[in-house]
Every structure is written in structure tokens, then in C-alpha cells.
Task: inverse folding
């Protein structure tokens, strides 16, 4: 029998795990690891009727945003952009987007676009429903389109836009995105058989004879006709919203796509699809935050005994395993270290904080260290998972300046590891301030003082090294070692601030309380270098990391932290005899 050689369409070009089901009983002897794996599996939704339909449609590989991904990933990203929420009307993203495709005229008239800016709300006041407006109204409003056109002209001339003009463009682009998706002009579903890296054909081409003729130039006519037939059948079943009929139609459509590719000796990398689907379902960073929180609550239990403390630490360690597993999955999916945007850096810095606490625990054997890290990491993960509209969790390809993975790994990871050490230091500093202000036992304050000093040393070494390596990277990428770019300047300010604290402690200018207070204050320079330069200043050569949003929340956090620090200082000053 003749065998046909097939080639795998890159999805993406990373080797890795096949699936978690490949593990067999007896592979691990350690009961803790088995428990963690069982916990991971329990978090993956079971396949029943409605979920199975979502799985079948969500697993279909598509091309969008510079990479190949499951349709479920595309849908999650698109629903977030269009609606401003991770879900809408209690529908899972993958099914919701397919319903957009099945009934574009219905959803086009629904108020699904969130309107946040007061001036835009005023403009669409008569059409708003719970501060939302329909795509049809946005795209048909002539006065609004004139405003968008004027803003776009300014943008093309590289003139600075007002916040209102930015929001006008964003709202219009979100409406256009919905229109493109609902009319299946995106994403790409069918790769070019000669070069899968080229732009893929959208399903729009299978809706009319001219489009099918174009597809027939690349694939056999009978396979093209079958795709068109099964696509139309799926749309009819989705309109009827009969789960069983839609499920069978979805299976048929998915199989016909696979057969179409097979007719040109192509198959998709199923392991890569499984990997990303597992990542989407597991939501490892949210799960890690929950485990850290549970560990904290158990650790705080009154009159805890040895076994309770061990349980708390085990759950904390399980959270770290899940946290690490999530990073491994994300690295395998993206093919790069996951620290290229604010969302990824927050998740990574939280991981680094926990990692350093475990390293310190190996030396000091104090459960206080992981407890501090768990508190801080839970807060960081909560921030990262709670604001998807401006902390974009999308897995995107690297911009050209970051495509040197060597320098990305060395420079960026070193800098962010330093942030992680200082985040851990920030948590220790606050606990030390509390213990001194409320006159806790001397043994506790002495231990915390030691932890604070050591974490300061680790953070300074990493941040200083990362800043120097950044200069080396800048010399290679931009042709100069140092240029007083805002990012470079604030990284240097952060290093100098912490060096001043270390020097003052060594010189005896600051006591334990002074070191703790100025360590906590110095973390504000890290926030400025980390968030402020990218999201507030938005200037300099580090434009690949720029974003927007969240300023009121960050300001509230900073002001609250300053008030807490001042309160600790005032309380200590009122009773100097106990200092």
C-alpha cells in the first residue's frame, strides 16, 4: 500500500508536552506530586454536551495576530476586545463568536460594545443600554465617523491625540473588529499549501462561487465544496441552537477542514493544540493564586500545630508547582520567555517572589518567609487576573527588537527577577514595620531584619546586573550603551535608591525601622520604572512595552501604601521608649 508523506503545519514551532493524559499510574512515587496532578485535572471542565460543542469548535486551528492558535484563544481575545469582558451573556467565548458568525444581523444590533468615556456616553446617550452600544449604531453614525476620521488624520500625521480621540478610535475599531469576525473575514482557517506562513484564507471565501474558485486553485474542488457545504450546515444548526445537531455539524466541519489539509499532505500539530487548550481550561495563574490564599488562611489559623503548618506549606508548594507549570505551558505555546508585556511580567514577578522565599526558606527554615511571599504573590496574581482590558493576557509574537532570545532571556529576566526580589523585600519591610510599631517580640523583629537585609542584597545585585546588561543589549540593538531613555533612567534611579538604603544600613545611619521604612518607600521607584514609564510616560525607545489604563488604581495603591507607612512611623514615634 502506498503511503502518503505528510508534513505538519507549524503550530507553533515548539516541541513539547503531548498532553497531561500521557502520564501513567505509578510514574511518580511522591504523593504530593500525584495530588497536584489530580488537582490540575480536576480543574479541567468535563466534556458534556454544551462543553463538547465548545471544545470541538474551539480546537479548530486558525491564524491570527501573527501566529496559529486554537479558535478558543482567538475567541477569548476577540470577546475581550469587543465587549470589554471575558464573557458575555453567560456564553463561553468560543460559542459566542460562532453565534456572532451564525447570526451577524442579530448581534450587530445588540448593545455589546462598552462605552466608558463620559463624552462618548453623552454622544450615544439615546442609544446606550447599560453603558453599551451596538456595532451597527457606531458604524452608521455619520457624525461619529467624521470625528473618527479627523482623529485618524491626526494619528497619521503623528500628532498627539487627546484621550477622547483615542477612545473614539478604539470604539470604532472594536465595532469594525466585530463586523470582520461576524462576516468571517477573519481569522484565517485554511493555510496556503505552498507556504503555511502566508496569510490563511478566511471562511468568507467559501460563501460564494468566486471565493470557492479561488480556494479550488489551491485545493481539490470536491474538498472545497465539502467545506462550503458543511460550513453552511453548521451555521444553520447554530441558528437553531440545538446542541446535539450543532455538535454533530461541528464535528463534520472540523473533520472536513482536516481532510482538506490532508489532501495537500498537511496535518496540524495536535500536541500544540492540546497544550494551548489545556492552558485555557486550567487557568494556572488563577489556580495558583487560590492555592496561595488557602495556604495563608491555614497558616494564620490560631493554635496551629505541626501538621497544620506542614499542610499550609504543602498547599503553598503546590501553588508554586501550578504557577511554574503555567509558565512552562505559556513558554511552550509562545516559544519565548513570557515577560514581554505587563501581564506576563506581573505573573513572572509574583513567581520570582515565591521562588526567592523558597530559597530563603532552605537557609532559614522559617515558614514566615513563604507566608509573606504567599500574601504578596496572591495580591500580584489578583491584580494580573482582574484587569484584562489593560493587562492584556494575549500571547503575541515578539516585536523585532525583542527577537534576540539570548538578550531577552538575559536582560529582561534579570531585571524582572530583581523586581521579584524587591517585591518580596517590600512584603518583609511591611511586616517588620508592623512588628516594630506594635512592639512584637524582639526575636521576631531580629529575624525579619535579617531577611530584609538579605533580600535587599539579592534585589540590588539582580537589578544592577540587569541594568548593565540592558546597556549591552541597547548597544547591539540601537547602537549606543546608554542614552538616558526614561526606562534606563528610572531603572538607574531604582538601583541607586536601594543602594542608598544598603549603604545607610552599613554605615549605621539607619536602624532596623529606618531600613524597613526606606525599603518600602524605595519600591515606589520600582513601580515607576516598571509601570510608570510604560503606562504613564509612554515615551522612549521601549515602546514595545507601552500600554494604557489602570492609573487610578495604581495611584490609589501608592497613596494607601504611603499612608500605611506613615501610620507605622507615627505609632512608633509616639512610644520611643520601646524602639
Result:
Amino acid at each position: 500500500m502506498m503511503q502518503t508523506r505528510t508534513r505538519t503545519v507549524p503550530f507553533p514551532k515548539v516541541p513539547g508536552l503531548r498532553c497531561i493524559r500521557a502520564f501513567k499510574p505509578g510514574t511518580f512515587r511522591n504523593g504530593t506530586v500525584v495530588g497536584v496532578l489530580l488537582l490540575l485535572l480536576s480543574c479541567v471542565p468535563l466534556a458534556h454536551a454544551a462543553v463538547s460543542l465548545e471544545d470541538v469548535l474551539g480546537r479548530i486551528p486558525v491564524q491570527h495576530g501573527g501566529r496559529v492558535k486554537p479558535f478558543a484563544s482567538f475567541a477569548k481575545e476577540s470577546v475581550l476586545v469587543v465587549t470589554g469582558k471575558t464573557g458575555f451573556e453567560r456564553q463561553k467565548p468560543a460559542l459566542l463568536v460562532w453565534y456572532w458568525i451564525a447570526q451577524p444581523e442579530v448581534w450587530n444590533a445588540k448593545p455589546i460594545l462598552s462605552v466608558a468615556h463620559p463624552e462618548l456616553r453623552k454622544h450615544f446617550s439615546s442609544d446606550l443600554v447599560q453603558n453599551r452600544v451596538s456595532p451597527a449604531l457606531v458604524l452608521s453614525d455619520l457624525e461619529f465617523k467624521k470625528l473618527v476620521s479627523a482623529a485618524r488624520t491626526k494619528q497619521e500625521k503623528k500628532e498627539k491625540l487627546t484621550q477622547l480621540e483615542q477612545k473614539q478610535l478604539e470604539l470604532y475599531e472594536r465595532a469594525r473588529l466585530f463586523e470582520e469576525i461576524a462576516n468571517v473575514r477573519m481569522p484565517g482557517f485554511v493555510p496556503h499549501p505552498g507556504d503555511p506562513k502566508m496569510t490563511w484564507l478566511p471562511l468568507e471565501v467559501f460563501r460564494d462561487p468566486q471565493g470557492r474558485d479561488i480556494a479550488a486553485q489551491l485545493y481539490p474542488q470536491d474538498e472545497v465544496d465539502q467545506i462550503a457545504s458543511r460550513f453552511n450546515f453548521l451555521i444553520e444548526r447554530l441558528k437553531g441552537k440545538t446542541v446535539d445537531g450543532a455538535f454533530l455539524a461541528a464535528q463534520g466541519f472540523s473533520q472536513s477542514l482536516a481532510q482538506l489539509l490532508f489532501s495537500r499532505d498537511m496535518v496540524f500539530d495536535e500536541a500544540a493544540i492540546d497544550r494551548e487548550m489545556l492552558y485555557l481550561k486550567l487557568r494556572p495563574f488563577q489556580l495558583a493564586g487560590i492555592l496561595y490564599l488557602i495556604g495563608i488562611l491555614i497558616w494564620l489559623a490560631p493554635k496551629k500545630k505541626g501538621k497544620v503548618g506542614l499542610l499550609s506549606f504543602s498547599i503553598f508548594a503546590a501553588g508554586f508547582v501550578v504557577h511554574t507549570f503555567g509558565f512552562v505551558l505559556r513558554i511552550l505555546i509562545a516559544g519565548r520567555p513570557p515577560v514581554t508585556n505587563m501581564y506576563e511580567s506581573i505573573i513572572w514577578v509574583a513567581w520570582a517572589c515565591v521562588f526567592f522565599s523558597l530559597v530563603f526558606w532552605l537557609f532559614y527554615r522559617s515558614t514566615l518567609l513563604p507566608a509573606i511571599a504567599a500574601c504578596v504573590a496572591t495580591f500580584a496574581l489578583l491584580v494580573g487576573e482582574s484587569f484584562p482590558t489593560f493587562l492584556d493576557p494575549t500571547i503575541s509574537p515578539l516585536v523585532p527588537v525583542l527577537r534576540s532570545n539570548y538578550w531577552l532571556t538575559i536582560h529582561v529576566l534579570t531585571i524582572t527577577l530583581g523586581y521579584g526580589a524587591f517585591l518580596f523585600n517590600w512584603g518583609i519591610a511591611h511586616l517588620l514595620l508592623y512588628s516594630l510599631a506594635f512592639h512584637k517580640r524582639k526575636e521576631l523583629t531580629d529575624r525579619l531584619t535579617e531577611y530584609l537585609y538579605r533580600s535587599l542584597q539579592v534585589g540590588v545585585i539582580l537589578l544592577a546586573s540587569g541594568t548593565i546588561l540592558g546597556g549591552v543589549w541597547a548597544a547591539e540593538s540601537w547602537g549606543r550603551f546608554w542614552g538616558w531613555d526614561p526606562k534606563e533612567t528610572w531603572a538607574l534611579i531604582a538601583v541607586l535608591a536601594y543602594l542608598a538604603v544598603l549603604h545607610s544600613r552599613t554605615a549605621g545611619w539607619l536602624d532596623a525601622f529606618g531600613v524597613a521604612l526606606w525599603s518600602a518607600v524605595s519600591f515606589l521607584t520600582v513601580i515607576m520604572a516598571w509601570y510608570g514609564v510604560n503606562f504613564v510616560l509612554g515615551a522612549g525607545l521601549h515602546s514595545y512595552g507601552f500600554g494604557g489604563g489602570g492609573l487610578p488604581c495604581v495611584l490609589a495603591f501608592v497613596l494607601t501604601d504611603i499612608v500605611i507607612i506613615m501610620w507605622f512611623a507615627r505609632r512608633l514615634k509616639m512610644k520611643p521608649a520601646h524602639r
Notes: The longest strand covers residues 61-64. The two ends are 88 Å apart (CA to CA).
